[in-house]
Amino acid sequence: MKTIFEYEEHTTGHVYDIDDKEKKGEDILTGLPKDLIRKELPLPNVSEVTVVRHYTNISRMNFGVDIGFYPLGSCTMKYNPKINEDVARLDGFKDLHPLSPESCIQGSLQLMWEFEQDLKKITGMDAFSLQPAAGAQGELLGIMIAKAFYKQKNEKRTKIIIPDSAHGTNPASAGMCKFETITIPSDSRGNMDIYKFKELLKHDVALVMLTNPNTLGLFEEKILEISDLAHSNGSFMYCDGANMNALLGISRPSDQGFDMIHLNLHKTFSTPHGGGGPGAGTVGVKSFLEDYLPPPRVIKQDDKFTLDHSKRKSMGRIRYSYGNFGMLVRAYCYIKSWGTDIRRVSEHAILNANYLLSLLKDDYELPYNRICAHEFVLSSKKFGDKSALNIAKRLMDYGFHPPTIYFPLIVREALMIEPTETESKEALDRFSVALRSIAREIKENPNIVKGAPYTKSIGRLDEVAAARKPNLRWITSSRPDEKKDRGGLAIIR
Amino acid sequence: MLMIEDIRFTKEHEWIIIKDGLAVIGISDFAQRELGDIVSIELPRVGSRFGYMQAMAIIDSVKTSSDIYSPLDGEVVEINEELLEHPEWINQSPYESGWIVKMKPSNMQAEEFNSLMTTEQYNKFIGEMKKEKE
Amino acid sequence: MDYIPTIKNDREEMLKQIGVRSINDLIVDFKPHFNEKLDLSKPMSELELVEHMTSLSQKNKILKYFIGGGSYNHYIPSAVNHLLMRGEFLTGYTPYQAEMNQGTLHAMYEFQSFICLLTGMDVANASMYEGSSALAEAVLVSSSYNGRNCVFVKDGLNPQYMEVLKTYCEAADLKLSNEIDENTTCVIAQNPDFYGNIEDLQYISEQAHRTGAIFITCIVEPTSLAILQPPGNYGADIVVGEGQSFGIPVNFGGPYLGFMGVRDFLLKKIPGRICGMTTDSNGNKGFVLTFQAREQHIRRERATSNITTNVALMALASTIYLALMGRQGLINVAKISYSRAHLLHNKLMSSGFKAMNKNPFYNEFLMKAPEGSSENISSNLLKNGILGGINLAEDKILICCTEMNTVQDIESFISLAKEAIVK
Fold this sequence. Notes:
The structure holds three protein chains of three kinds. By secondary structure, chain A is α/β, with parallel strands linked by helices. Chain A contains 15 helices and twelve strands. In chain A, strands 1-7-6-5-4-2-3 form a seven-stranded mixed beta sheet, sandwiched between helices. In chain A, helix 5 crosses helix 10 and helix 11 runs parallel beside helix 13. The longest helix of chain A has 20 residues. Chain B is α+β, with helices and mostly antiparallel strands. Chain B has a single domain, classed as CATH 2.40.50.100. Chain B has five helices and nine strands, in the order E-E-E-H-E-E-E-E-E-H-H-E-H-H. Chain B has a six-stranded antiparallel beta sheet with strand order 1-2-3-9-8-5. Chain B has a three-stranded antiparallel beta sheet with strand order 4-6-7. The longest helix of chain B is centred in the last third of the chain and has 15 residues. In chain B, 39% of the residues are buried. Chain C is 38% helix and 14% strand. The longest helix of chain C has 39 residues. By secondary structure, chain C is α/β, with parallel strands linked by helices. Classes of the chains: A alpha/beta, B alpha+beta, C alpha/beta.
């Protein structure tokens, strides 16, 4: 398929009526000095028909939850309710300028305030910031809060403890705030090793950052003990809430001892993944940290809602405006649709995961033989090196999106599978049949698996060439001195 | 007495050869196989100093990123700039055209160099590593 | 509304297969248990939800906007939304499995290309969160590249962007400084700036480069790039900004679209996802995520950034917008925005307002209202459904026009402003 830059020139049709000046032939830009004006704009000019066909056709080379089963572990690819799309597009929400005066934004402020109350109830936290644009930005905010807190207390704490199963964003977020990461190994039951934890929990530890259930899909069996130890050490407990889909109405992070949490609205709270975002990563804290949340905060006074812009003890705002409001609307609507029944979401997420696990554990290896939460990790290492990759590619031919592979790092040839609650037993049965069939194929006809996929719009792509000979943008003839295929690029430190 | 052209290995899979008073350093064949197809390398600046086992370069493959550690205390006097355009040489020829840096040892004693693993010791070491993996 | 398809029979079979009697047996070890029922509202059907959400949205008031300040009210062609709502685009995730998501990757490649064409940079990533945090992350790139820790910001940066910059710098132990010297990691300038002023920033880029600092340009109203010089032409090393003007509604502040483009030498430091063109085993052209070894899931604590989820769908929206508008359409939008802003500006000058821009401006400009009048003028406009700009100190108002402000709208603005002038 062509890129949009390779079509013949057409009229776009999207040209608006200017005022009389232009019609009289006067140059609109006379006021601008010539050296500020651009000489050429090398953008394509294509008709609407062509544009619509172009993007419609490329969309058909994609796969989404709307098409089929998407068990990408850690991402919670549940069905995205269409009603959420409608309400997010209500004029009163989408056309509201963020700098409108408070008297004109009462509906949106009310939504944000009510949403905060719902998130407080679900997690047991005392206050939420709706600013972060994604889970990773939520983690960053959490670490900024810890940094500000210890600075004000004059305590020098520069380390963060994470388990070896942690998602890469955890240490990366720590690095952005100049914190060091201490990694604790997992024990034979998949919990963070509590003895090693005690050993390394020193007075320079600011935060303990855990996902619960963890990235192996297992509930941390010693969570209360870990929280107590952390608190006695004067450290915070931070919950990476990526796996909240297992806890709704079942167990609250605050009761587990967490002082802070971020929630990925595009995971548990059903906002669509959009091919890689936008998401939102709301951050909840216990009351002693409320003053560290970035301004502005939504306050309710009688029947009116107002914005408090005071910085209090926070490091400051972390993004322009209030948050990814469009995603807040969707998640708010989702919570309202479930209401007090929201526990069923987690119950069925856990049921589906355990059912699928029971169907697959004989053909694949289960590194930790425990009841799983809403996701589980299998290993295909008995099928050899790169087997997880090959199995993933072969699954595409069976009409499924592959699970997450090679994560968490502590399991060799890892396949992380998260069915979510919006899948039927029938879908799970079909998926297990496919995976068991591929397990047989690997033994009987390994080449067919190694060369997959065969039925997608493209065959297996050469990722090495993509990096060694990068072609990262379309080069138009306006910069003819540049080569179309670039050689390797690198930096010298 | 340092043996010229004697090769030694570190636990992090770097190799080192002393030639004309300079230490030539690269990564072992085992390491390049573990990393997979190498797509780029970040080299240190000429003139920078590194301590024993301090990270001095980063090798990226498609799916991994690995630190390369200095096997001695010293100063970088030459870097293999060709690797910027041809990172694949590290895979194809890890001991020859895939050399990474040349360093001037600040104060290398024979014992230091000899405490690194010989070829025999290194082969035993990676043999045990492979067994542990299974 | 129930999105769980599992019927009772199936549930029982599944429990049997697992080997437990009830779902409670599966969560018995999730301690501490939450034994109450969550104190949320009653579940709502779609019908009730529509009523509830519509009534909430109607508590907002949509005004006629003569305001910018980081969010710009441009017209969005209807095709954008229709294409965006396709389930294939909306409901997939990051294309780690490239063969299954060539659509997303193809669009990413086009987005990266558009950003490079507009800004004059060599490489762009697949998007950041929004403009201000993109700017903050550009500073981290710069510091990671040259190891320095002082940041120089030319005056005229959007105040919210400045706040965000300060937060990120404090977190990363970087300092804002008034000097450009050998400690300066980067020099930042917004163009056009917060007050609308456009400048040829060649002289700033030279100052930065003389000391070995990186020059970062920040573009908050990118339709300006249709007619103004791309920052690549005046020495920018990094261009960041806000893409909301390209096909994204003002949406009460988000989700928006951060973008980052860099020159070649910074490729290994740029955060976020990057798509590259490559071939499959049969020589067919396709796309993959590439240079992943920069990112958090591989570099972990050594990554320049922790960014994972970005705003792929917004990047797609802007790609479709730019494709629909084309060269003709985008230049046209920029010219009308410029023209309307200058029309209003001139009429305000004839009505007793003082022009405050020391430089040429694009579609946003600063005016000083007759003494003591700015509050009165704003409230009179507001009473008549118009948001007349951002009120700043000393009777100054920052006003913006786009193609959405008709000549009639401008006439209304003038008469309402005139009648509210305090004598």
